[in-house]
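In response to reviewer comment 3 from the previous cycle, which asked for concrete evidence that the modeling workflow produces usable outputs, we include below a single protein chain processed end to end. The sequence was submitted unchanged, and the resulting structure tokens are shown without manual editing.
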Amino acid sequence: MRNCGGWRSGGGKDSGEDSSAYTALVFIDPDSGAKRRVALRRAIPTEAVEPSLVGDTLYFVRQNGEVTAVTTGGKRLWTKATGVERLSTPTVSARRGALYLAAPSGRVIALDLTDGRVLWQEKPRTDPGGVQADLALIGDALYVVYGWDTADVFSMDVGKRPPRGKAPAEEGHRGGRPPRLRPADTGRHICCRRCAPRAH
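The workflow returned the following structure tokens.
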């Protein structure tokens, strides 16, 4: 079983059910502890990172780059094979109607929220490998943290929707390798999985 806020995804070693696929969602009331179970209309393989709940939609991202969107009612909205492996936890812009993900190489890909089609994607910034990327979206500014033994960061304005197949303009540097992550560069701290503990 996997936790995310007030819900769990059914299936797995702890559930006594088929551990090869997610078969149901379990919603838990934080006050009363009451549980409500919703069966998935189509099972989802468990070779996925931790499912992400954004609004009323769950996003399952497999290591092979396949992304699946499922409503909290158990209905599968779409599945898209992006061809980009080891994608990050997604972030969503409802205003732009887009789901953003990034690869360890720094490649960013944007998917349409309604049908999963690729809106645009970037070229890789470094060799494949490294640790999973992190994303932070503040308004239309998308911050991407990626890298191997050290973290690099760059940002882009996702409000500038590019022509098909091209990425939006970047902010903060011109050409070459993006600058090393220094919180003072932005004037505000962007929280990510690799941040050292600090006061905010």
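The first strand starts at residue 2 and ends at 4. We consider this sufficient to address the reviewer's concern, and the full set will be provided in the supplementary archive.
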